[in-house]
């Protein structure tokens, strides 16, 4: 504001003065997450301390005061397997990292975390809070070998026939279907010195198709 001092006749008796009014921030805004649901991923078997993702919240209050200073924490993890605290969060940056070993996609393919952001530097009594959901997908690595469904397969073919399927070899693989870790390659290691047969793979079923080629 600019204030003017005048006498009764309206004459200025001194130079105008500036009056500065500072509006002091009150904690009247809750933290707001950038997304209601955050999506991230981490490979199975990751070591403790592996980075997963970062969640971010903003607060309209003055960031130079505690009113706008946020702290993050994990409220819950679902499922709680193989441990209830598979992840931890940097309370200042919102970075989520693995804290325990045992991530196994074949057992738990996905985790859901509820994240809380609280202002007043995380003060549970006076701080205002908000929550968001974080979905962490456990990605596949090639940690399971294919296994034949039986020890012996049988087939037959007429003599002098080529390019016909003699037998189908079936396997199971616990890795994620239709990925390189799941796709099986077959080869003959003994019993066919003259190369009468080959075994291409059916890309849909992952079966080995023993085929007469000579």
Brief descriptors of the model:
214 residues; mainly beta; four-stranded mixed sheet; three-stranded antiparallel sheet; 16 strands; rod-shaped; transmembrane; repeat; DNA binding; metal-binding; cell adhesion
Describe the structure.
It is found in: Cell junction, Adherens junction; Cell junction, Desmosome; Cell membrane, Sarcolemma; Cell membrane. This is Chromodomain-helicase DNA-binding protein. Residues 1-33, 34-148 form the Cadherin domain. It comes from Characodon lateralis. It is a single-pass type I membrane protein. The chain is an all-beta fold. Helices cover 2% and strands 33% of the residues. It is built from 1 helix and 16 strands. It has one helix at residues 119-122, and strands at residues 2-3, 17-18, 32-33, 37-43, 51-54, 57-58, 71-78, 87-89, 95-98, 110-118, 129-139, 147-148, 164-169, 171-172, 197-198, 208-212. The strands form 6 sheets. It has a 4-stranded mixed β-sheet. A 3-stranded antiparallel β-sheet has the order 5-9-8, with no helix packed on it. The chain has a 3-stranded antiparallel β-sheet with strand order 13-16-15, with no helix packed on it. The longest helix has 4 residues, at 119-122. It is rod-shaped and about 125 Å long.
């Amino acid at each position: 504001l600019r204030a003017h001092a005048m006498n009764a006749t309206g004459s200025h008796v001194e130079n105008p003065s500036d009056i500065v009014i500072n509006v002091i921030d009150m904690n009247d805004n809750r933290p707001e997450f950038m997304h209601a649901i955050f999506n991230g991923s981490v490979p199975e078997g990751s070591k403790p301390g592996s980075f997963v993702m970062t969640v971010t919240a903003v607060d309209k209050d003055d960031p130079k005061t505690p009113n706008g200073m946020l702290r993050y924490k994990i409220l819950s993890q679902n499922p709680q397997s193989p441990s209830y605290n598979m992840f931890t969060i940097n309370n200042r940056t919102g970075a989520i990292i693995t804290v325990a070993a045992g991530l196994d996609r074949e057992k738990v393919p996905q985790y859901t975390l509820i994240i809380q952001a609280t202002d007043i530097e995380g003060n549970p009594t006076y701080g205002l809070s908000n929550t968001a959901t974080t979905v962490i997908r456990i990605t596949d690595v090639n940690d399971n070998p294919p296994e034949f469904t039986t020890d012996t397969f049988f087939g037959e073919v007429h003599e002098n026939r080529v390019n016909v399927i003699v037998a189908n070899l079936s396997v199971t693989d616990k890795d994620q279907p239709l990925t390189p870790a799941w796709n099986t390659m077959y080869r003959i290691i003994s019993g066919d010195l003259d190369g009468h047969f080959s075994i291409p793979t059916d890309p849909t079923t992952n079966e080995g198709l023993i085929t007469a080629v000579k």
